[in-house]
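Rotation project, supervised by the postdoc (A.L.). Task for the rotation student: set up a whole-complex structure prediction and record inputs and outputs verbatim in this book. Inputs entered:
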Amino acid sequence: MGNTVKIKGTRDGLLISMGGGDLGLMLAELRAQLSRSPAFFQGAKVALAVGSRPMTTLELQQVHDVLGEQGIAIWAVVSQSAVTRGAARELGLASASPPEESRSDLEAGQEPAVIVRRTLRSGQAVRYPGHIVVSGDVNPGAEIIAGGDVIVWGKLRGTVHAGAMGDDSAVVCALQLQPMQLRIGGHIARSPEGNKGKQGVRPEMARVQGEEIVAELWEP
Amino acid sequence: MPGKVITITSGKGGVGKTTVTANLGMALAQRGQRVAVVDSDIGLRNLDVVMGLENRIVYDLVDVVEGVCRLRQALIRDRRVNELYLLPAAQTRDKTAVSPSDMVQVCEQLRREFDYALIDSPAGIEQGFQNAIAGADQVIIVTTPEVSAVRDADRIIGLIEAREKGPGSLIINRLKPEMVKRGDMLSTDDVVEILAIELLGIIPEDEAIVISTNRGTPIVLDGRGPSALALDNIARRLMGEDIPVYRPAREDGFFSRLARLVRGND
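Outputs recorded:
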């Protein structure tokens, strides 16, 4: 089945990108992809990119409805077609032309991992369909949601969800693994009580073993 | 030379923004600067009370924004100190009465008239906060050494950095060195380690502050006491003086050192 519906992570949130071809087939593919990983999109800011396809308000509304079935609301539509942008505005959505093909955005959907080179503060979230590497801390109140692994070269004290698209084999590694809440695939865990002290904190890796999440020494 | 607009914010309510704004403003004025303190907490104004100027309010920030009066008419001169003025908020309106671009314009005017304009921000991250930082050249974040206050401060710093008003500098308020030494309160290092911004100053817990805010006489007027000294030092640092910040540390008592030795990880 053609992979004409792609989900990418960008600086401004998630981007669902639809190619050309029959709209009905496109919507079916979209529905299938979304139902495979519903949790990943919870609360995400999602934009829709339709390339140069001209779309009417009715057609855009159909896409909107399919997304709505999974509780996803789009906030913007990106397209080279002025017709589509007009239709988006009529539906009360933001509209934009695609930016100059910047290398980073183009590659974003194809790169297996994204590197975040700063500390994430409370209230900030990074969401990416592949792996996420953070060079910095993840403060309490910050969130990392990755389709793949999560590696934090720093202190992980926020909330993390690896394998968020249904992959139990994902891992979470950190120099200091002290998350508020840790999820891998469909499993959830929190730091053991009484682990607030700073003594003896070593790099650890968390992974699913059987039905539980276990943390062991990480020797990168 | 144009003045500096400094917004004092926190995220969490009740950590001391208004007290800091009033005292810092007064301390700067006492040191010869021309200062305006501005209350941007529309609907829940407090700066006028803490300054003891509430019964002299005729016009307020909303009147200025709506063109009902000129800025000069709304500014209240504090007679106790040279060159200190208050621009009060409105009490009978709410945050929707002012927009960020209104604030940018008011700050432009303030910059022309004053060496320092200190904007007292409301708590929260919504419109009141957005208004307060809109015209700022620099931001001071006030926190207490408590987990929830630090969590909110971290959020605020993230928002400020995202608006390119960062990174901001930090004041830790209401620190109790005895509690820190016992390990019952977050230390300065604990707080700075999470927030990771420049430390502008530490103000110790001081009963005299509660009395002063109720009376409407900012504590730096009196000038004595540890918190007055700390606030004055912060004013001097803002003016460019290099005064080291005294950081009370978790003290290692004999028994805790012994305990660590026994556990084998010293």
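Student's summary: Confidence is low (pLDDT under 50) at residues 102-109 of chain A.
Supervisor addendum: The two ends of chain A are 38 Å apart (CA to CA).
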